Amino acid sequence: MHLFASHLGTFEVEHDAAGQPSLRPFRLDPDPSPVGMAYLDLARHPSRILSPMVRRSWLEAPTDPATRRGRGFDDYVAVGWDQAARLVADTLARTRDRLGNEGVFGGSYGWASAGRFHHAQSQLKRFLNLTGGFTSAVNTYSYGAAGVLLPHVLGADYKDACDTAPSWSDIAASCRLLVGFGGFRLSNAQVEAGGTGSHRAAPALRDYVSNGGRMVVFSPSAADAPEGAEHHFLRPNTDTAVMLGLCHTLLVRGRADHDFLARCTMGFELFARYLLGEDDGAPKSAAWASAISGVPEAVITGLALELADTPSLINLSWSLQRARFGEQPYWAAIALASMAGYVGERGCGFAFGLTAVNSVGQPVRRLKGPSFEQGRNPVGHYIPVARITELLEGEHRTIAYNGRILPLPKIGLVWWAGGNPFHHHQDLGRLARAFRNPETVIVTDSVWTATARHADIVLPAALPFERNDIAASSRDNWLVYSRQVLPPPDNVLTDHDGLRRIARVMGLEEDFSEGRSEAEWVVHLYDGYRARYPELPSAETFFVEGYAGLDIDATAPAPADHFRAFVTDPAARPLRTRSGLIELFSETVAGFDYADHPGHPSWMQPEECLLSPLATKHGFHLLSPQPSTRLHSQLHGAGPSQSAKRDGLERVEINPGDARELGLAEGDVAEIYNERGRIWASVALAPHLMERVLVLPTGGWFDPVDGIDRGGNPNTLTAIRPTSTLAQATAPNSCLVSIRRADPRETA
Prior knowledge:
The chain has 25 helices and 31 strands. It has 748 residues and is an alpha/beta fold.
């Protein structure tokens, strides 16, 4: 079977009478992605990068600081691969001679391909490690705050927020009350980092509701609540306050499970003092939480009592920890579930990210297979990934992070592959200024993103359907042989072949490639999976049939909930925390003495929210969820994404009452602005949205013209301010803006 595998799932390839290919749903996928079927729209798209390109002024004077001002709008000169390879090799050597290998920043990210071999991040890091190493980045934009906090609270085994959720089958069997903070955005469940053969998350959630499972959702948008759920509006960034109000109610009504708290948690006494307001004089009551959040006091009180009586699961979306003090709602959810007492029971307790991606909660055996070996990085310098701007600005010598002080080396060379920071980073105007500081910027990409337009050397990369690979997610049970659908354009190479050309100039080709071709690497990786899972078919069978997996033809037994063994016997099966218990108070975190991160779950008001003084100037809270018509900024040029625009503009959702007050109507061109920037978007009236909240999904291509981002990227407006000193993670969902009708003289 001829299959193409992507982050949006697996698709069958068909050819018409003229031999032209198209994508169709994979016959074994119960919920295929319509967006993924548009991948081939990019094959000959005008945005394709068709040869190595070098920015003209940099080519003329690569070490002259004056040429850096042209990044973002200069023109480019096409060069051959031999010249491009020499330019890259010379630039690497010049940077190392001047600044050492720590002067090279490898800015790759992991979403360029679902393939295990053609994985841009792994390819670039392997190459840079062979050249002596580089300054790297840790954590993710997806759940950076959770990834730092959870090991302190739940132990080192829970750095991945995906690993906390019980299985959907256990939830269906035993959970009678599913409470969702941030909601369930079902389009996100179409995505998986390594691809999948079967989308199960959205059907599982629908089945839970249709089979009588009770669901309560708190979110600024009723669109985040699946059909059949009970929805309650709350002000953005106030979820922690609601959870603390629920905790307080359980405590003062005598409904907290003190046996569970004594056996399985550490520090509840200190947390209880905070709930009762014994130190700050402010009890975190349901009335207190209602005043902050807008959720009625009776709703909070009633739900608290229901949680005490009902086998329940509390799920938080990843979006909640992508906000100022984003660690706090996750910690508060753990405390609330612990007080309710259902942690460790089948299908109950807490979960982070159900429907955030397809694999969270899947009742399958996971394929923990090999990856393309990156080697060892000799350079020890690193930053949290969301602190790129501070690194490149060169004005900051150190940064505090998770109990450490990280030195920030001077960066002379940035090499970006497999990502688009001018999509997912914050305060894009400030990022653009920071990008003008390094001597050289290299970008490997397939299309002319804003990141590519800020580069000095641009190396074209083949798209995922232009190469052969194995797709697999370490959280799923599918392996897919993704066969080339179309050849890449002339002068466009895969990431591997492009790096191999540069390695040849530097005398590193054999070390980089190990003498293997693409086909040999793919077979080598599959053999690694078979060595771990002998029940997989032979390589010959796999490459003919096109897919394989663990238990894909049978119903796999649901895995045990992650905390069941611990709760049964905490002494015999301790967590890998400092105390061996769930830490509702962390001596480690408290010992860091961070003013913006106490040692227990706490309500901390963001500088930018509807309660803050700035709201009198910028009266709307801007939320920027993942888009439903593309993958991050990928597939921006494909049919679904382009069809969702209006007159070429992204759509911003606004409550109809707010729109009337501002004189805005459906389809008007609106300007959204704050001190960080200005963008244009088309007004979309949204009755499901609470007042004074705007929703503008990410992924519009940053396109500043005369000071206005016509691409409608919300990160033109979001702050670079981190979640906290602890995680230094991204916090775009704490953003205040103003909105008005765009000046007709500028739109004409």
